[in-house]
Design brief:
Layout lengths: L10 H14 L15 H12 L7 H9 L1 H24 L11 H9 L1 H37 L7 H18 L8 H27 L11 H19 L4 H5 L6 H12 L4 H15 L15 H33 L9 H24 L3 H28 L6 H35 L7
Helix pairs in contact: 2-8, 2-11, 3-4, 3-9, 3-12, 4-9, 4-11, 4-15, 5-6, 6-7, 6-13, 6-14, 6-15, 7-13, 7-14, 8-12, 8-13, 9-15, 9-16, 15-16
Amino acid sequence: MEVNNGDGVGHSNMSRKVADEENSAVVIPETAHQISSDSWFQVGFVLTTGINSAYVLGYSGTIMVPLGWIPGVIGLIVATAISLYANSLVAKLHEFGGRRHIRYRDLAGFIYGRKAYSITWALQYVNLFMINTGYIILAGSALKAIYVLFSDDHVMKLPYFIAISGFVCALFGISIPHLSALRLWLGVSTVLSLIYIVVAFVLSVKDGIEAPARDYSIPGTTTTKIFTTIGASANLVFAFNTGMLPEIQATIKQPVVSNMMKALYFQFTAGVLPMYAVTFIGYWAYGASTSTYLLSSVNGPVWVKALANISAFLQTVIALHIFASPMYEYLDTKFGIKGSPLAIRNLSFRIGVRGGYLTINTLVAALLPFLGDFMSLTGAISTFPLTFILANHMYLKARHNKLTSLQKLWHWLNVCFFGLMSLAAAVSALRLIAVDSKTYSVFADI
């Protein structure tokens, strides 16, 4: 019913008009990529590939060492629960308002308007760019680890291996036109993940049994401990979240919400167990001396460690493609790259544009190869806002009339708490980068 304010203008109609004008200003293009074609099981493997990527080999050092046993274990379990909850909120809004929102920024733009559309896209771009940069650092670290196993001349430095990794990632990105086309590669990724996780687990157990008493105390001064603890909280968030859930959900078959919930439950049950195992065992075996790349700490046969590092390198190449796909989709859609992936125009476009994008990623990776810093800063400035702050506030705004007062209070508490955490984690990460910048030069051989 229209409520008149005395000047002949109805409040409800005015509000609707303003909202419609704001939302209509956001132009939502049809995607050039394939959507609505994948089973929930395939999407579950996409999510699991992200959570069990080679980043998992660093969590003993970047999460457990700064937090210690009790806070570290509790933190990982709590982060799992709240990440599943926040992701489920976003998944349930996929068809909000009678339309399907296949991009995170589309959903934010529909709910808030043009400014939120642009801010969300900027946050997501930063998030995915930094994740991809970290993947290239990981891939380069794996290649260097293989080199060190067979040579001690130190002629080849980490930046060289990062450059090689960037080139291989670009070749893979050019060859796979869109996210749904991964298919068989997701199975390959799962096998590769199991190889380096099992090797790291078994060799860590062996080292842990044979090693003397380990030091599990949190290193550093009181001030350092405070900052590293805050930074580790950002790493916890980073470990479980993609920052591109609507883009992944866009590939799933109808019914999209119930199928996505199945995929999420698969990710946060079967998917997290290998990650827990290798993280806890790595910390148990090496304590405060755990490396931020676990395969650098373990002792074992050369060929076994080489196999694990090769697997980590190849799996990283596949995983990077997942997190680069929103940028690929944006560019392909903007320039109308449709049809056969092997068409001359389409192939040359992917070579030039995707190759150029990953060249920039590779340059940044070689310039500042501080993996732990990337994880902390990414979690602070983009993963926290996208996964927790925005997810809770969008759900609050979209379902406002259907929520009880207690439910509204719960979502507001989440928004405020994670807003403060994001700010604190950003300060901590920037401090960590400043400290590391004094220790390492650009193009450092770490």
